[in-house]
## 1
Amino acid sequence: MKTATIVGAGLVGSLWAVYLSKAGYQVKIFERRPDIRKAEISAGKSINLALSTRGWKALDAVGVGDEIRKIAIPMTGRIMHDLEGNLTYQPYGKEGQAIYSVSRGGINAKMMDIAEEYGNAKIFYNEKCVDVDLENGIVYLENTENGEKSAVQSDLVFAADGAFSAVRYNAMQKLDRFNYSQNYIEDGYREILLPANTDGSYKLDKNALHIWPRGRFMLIALANEDGSFTCTLFMPFEGENSFETLTSKEAVDRFFKKTFPDFYDMMPDIADAWEDHPLSSLAIVRCYPWTHGKTALMGDAAHATVPFYGQGMNCGFEDCTVMWELMQQHGDDWDQIFREYQRLRKPDGDGVQDLSLHNYHVMRDYVADPKFLLQKKIEAHFSEKYPDKWMPLYSQVTFSHIRYSEAFKKGQEQDAIMKKVMAQFDDIESRWNSEAVENAILAELK
Ligand SMILES: Cc1cc2nc3c(=O)[nH]c(=O)nc-3n(C[C@H](O)[C@H](O)[C@H](O)COP(=O)(O)OP(=O)(O)OC[C@H]3O[C@@H](n4cnc5c(N)ncnc54)[C@H](O)[C@@H]3O)c2cc1C
């Protein structure tokens, strides 16, 4: 039987283990942390993620989707909270389309169960990868509890050990002509758990992603299954309205009371919970090649991105789809599979990063700009009327399987068209849904 080693039993590693087991490989997964299924994880200690169409496809292909559906909460749109507590609802897509809130710990634990149920996958915990012989498929490990060192050889090695991948850092980066860049953005994030009401009910509509946009910073909230919400405050590390100004309980209390009054009403003890979760940073990591010898990088290890499009996990799951499709085409010819995988997938790794950065700037700088909002309104109207001619960028990324690289390119073209058309009308505010505007867009599309 062919053997494979996966480094990291995170979201991508545990899903990829299911694929490989199904394909008849004997799989060993080495995970640095203890078994999260046995560890005491209180709700909210684990952040939740938005799962969308690409992720579902990868889960459904190996029959995992239905298990995850049981713990997924649909979010059909975003609800914006302004300073006065007024709410504005924006659907994400067409009727029936939704993204899904899933708990990172929950989905990870379910996939670990499924990977092990297939019989050919075994997860070893507290085993930290310290090095890899890329060409010979040897993974060097150190037990985090007793310091014992070991080495495991297999036919294939998959590095799914996340944004700060040890495989990439300790082995790939030592290769000649390996390209690598790591860029932190100015913002960090801190999570906050908004508890359920005493009767277990939700304090906000659970079927929406809640956003409190405040220009240079924002708070978001996604529902958990137990009635609570995991909220995340994204904000610069430094400057006015930054994490460096929120260093005392009084400052945190004052800030939330003034900036997120309706949130503060639901959680007046926010300052007490402030230190429960650490302040974390956000980076984009680009590298190439993604494969060498018997080893391939997958998920964040290959293309870590910032979370502003909610696509990091979805993209990692799509890596599994692509690798799987290549296995169908090339059988056991892994040289060919790895060559094709990185050739095909690298532009989309770059694509998802470009899209995420683009959305970071949109959310930061444009979301409150009336011109930008008008542009989105015209686009939505036009796309509803001519769905075969115009799919909004958000839908291309979230509700389709169009390659990320193509979606990014198409999005830029659409943006240029809209800007050109809007500039043709002095009275665009009053004529945004007129036939003349429609015809001008149609003319640009020809
Ligand atoms: C704030 C935030 C919000 C996000 N929201 C979304 C979202 O809404 N939707 C979305 O699609 N994505 C989202 N993402 C991105 C998503 O979390 C990642 O893309 C996803 O977790 C990547 O999965 P992975 O398996 O590649 O890496 P990880 O989930 O990081 O898993 C890596 C695993 O490897 C293990 N490991 C690390 N080093 C070693 C080692 N040396 N030896 C052995 N094991 C090791 C780790 O313990 C971990 O279990 C978000 C990210 C952040 C930070």
Note: The two ends are 55 Å apart (CA to CA).
## 2
Amino acid sequence: MQRLKSLSVTAGSFPCRRLAELEGLAVPSKPRKSLVKTVPKFKTHREASAWAVDNNVAQYSSFKGVDPAIARDWIQGAIDTKARVPGLKMDFIGTAQERNRYVKDMMRPKAEEWASRFYEPGTKSHARMVSRYLRKLVPPMRPRDVAVSFGGPGMGGVGINAKFGKRIEDFTDMVRRNMESGWWSRSDKPTVAHIISHEMGHEIDRLFDLRKDRRFIDLYRSHDVMRELSEYGSRSIAEMIAEGWAEYTGSSKPRPLATQIGKIIEEAISESERFGKTTSA
Ligand SMILES: [Zn+2]
């Protein structure tokens, strides 16, 4: 069974833009327009990535290997959540593999310098040490994870597992199976939107530190989350929040627990607007 998970990778701060340009990533090519509501259809994943950057969805983007229709829905889901949470900012949107590759490339010079203390650069031992070091700092995407919300600073944002993103029909079929089994919470339709909403739920959680909020701690303790929301949501407070947000935003009739979770999140959003909190996740 495929699984969602949340993962926090601290990558530190790097000269992302320069490196991104060298790597030929999508970087802002013109003044950014304000966020728009409807994402257009794309012919290629490159088009989707460029659009995401130009429209300020995230600073960097690569949907390499992903069905453009999935990329479109992924970006739309991120925009929909960002429109509700003005303080939410992301460095990256795209595939988890590409995000990890960027971070590794950024860290490589430092890793090489460090390994040079032990081995001659250019030798096999040096190369092995560099790749071991990078792998430790940036763990690979676990094959059964469908998507990830990466913490910052560095390259925070939301990534889809490229392995699951090849065909939108297969993706939605996988979502449907996981919803029907009760592993994931419910939406009106088993769509990409449900998964991106889940990941954006993690982004909101991180922005407002919701998992430490008394209201969520109490909800988690006093409810049978597995039965009332989803099995995946019962794993932790953070997953309950993400699963609840996905159902609250994706279902026309969210169940009571999802409704409660959604309402608390809405409250947190309006509180932050009142107090002008606009820090990024
Ligand atoms: Zn999750």
Note: The chain has a mean pLDDT of 87.
